[in-house]
Amino acid sequence: xxxxxxxxxxxxxxxxxxxxxxxxxxxxxxxxxxxxxxxxxxxxxxxxxxxxxxxxxxxxxxxxxxxxxxxxxxxxxxxxxxxxxxxxxxxxxxxxxxxxxxxxxxxxxxxxxxxxxxxxxxxxxxxxxxxxxxxxxxxxxxxxxxxxxxxxxxxxxxxxxxxxxxxxxxxxxxxxxxxxxxxxxxxxxxxxxxxxxxxxxxxxxxxxxxxxxxxxxxxxxxxxxxxxxxxxxxxxxxxxxxxxxxxxxxxxxxxxxxxxxxxxxxxxxxxxxxxxxxxxxxxxxxxxxxxxxxxxxxxxxxxxxxxxxxxxxxxxxxxxxxxxxxxxxxxxxxxxxxxxxxxxxxxxxxxxxxxxxxxxxxxxxxxxxxxxx
Length: 373
Hints:
Elements: H1 8-20, E1 28-33, H2 36-43, E2 51-55, E3 60-64, H3 71-75, E4 80-84, H4 88-97, E5 102-106, H5 113-126, E6 130-134, H6 138-144, H7 148-170, H8 180-194, E7 198-199, E8 204-207, E9 228-233, E10 235-237, E11 240-241, E12 244-249, H9 255-273, H10 281-294, E13 306-308, E14 315-319, E15 332-335, E16 338-341, E17 345-348, E18 351-354, E19 361-362
Parallel strand pairs: 1-5, 3-4, 5-6
Antiparallel strand pairs: 1-2, 2-3, 7-10, 8-9, 9-12, 10-11, 13-14, 15-18, 16-17, 18-19
Helix pairs in contact: 1-6, 7-8, 9-10
């Protein structure tokens, strides 16, 4: 666990700067925040229910219910005004604006139609003349560049995942006769033992032909000699995710399997070298993709090269052919090329890394040498 204290006030100030650049900036009275990870980023609250309001004058209001009355005393940033109530959104906006009404920005990208309808009904009942306007992405934009506290926590989440992977391999728990589900359960247990608060996504263990399914899960298929096994896993530590993929062999592998592994590893190294402050995300994707295409497997690498990692395991920026983003110092991203041969098997190799002034700092550090277990 990190011993440093996040600078929540600076985070909130960055969001207000982003909001000020909105075309409606002169009219906004504040931003209503309902996404729990956005709330955590701005206030420190890690619970599962609540709402926050970031007023244009810099004040911040938070509401949750009685289940979290004690939790907010220890978690919430002292600069946040708190109310314990059953009506989260209405309470924070009313606390900030009183009865005068106003224009409230909402993070519509994180709201369902039902939730938006509920908000409108709630504020109509208050009769305060509140108007909503879409204002999505302002918190996420601030979240993209990680501060030193966040980097420390993400590095710990990666270390936890590394420790668990090493324990799994050394215990001989990836072996013929075991099911994908058993391997996933053991890996998740090792992550818990190493200090994970949970998994950052459902662990993927794709053996044999299942390894050709990029977003497979972990089923009841037994591992057999000659399989490639794709294992994609991540730990959550203090709210932050890690993301890592390793591919191993069960017993001796064939030449075609070793070939696609070496091509993927070469692409992963090339993509990693392209993760440079100021370079385009598209170019990083292209660099890795070219390696796979030149080896004759271009049609079998369909997904993007990578994505941002933070409070969510998938964040901006995306490293893809459609990306218009530029990599920036402080981005934490994945590089995860793969080759997937339908009905036969696949390989993916993935690391989480920090964009720096020079070469990226790779945070997932277990060996990528091909293991034939």
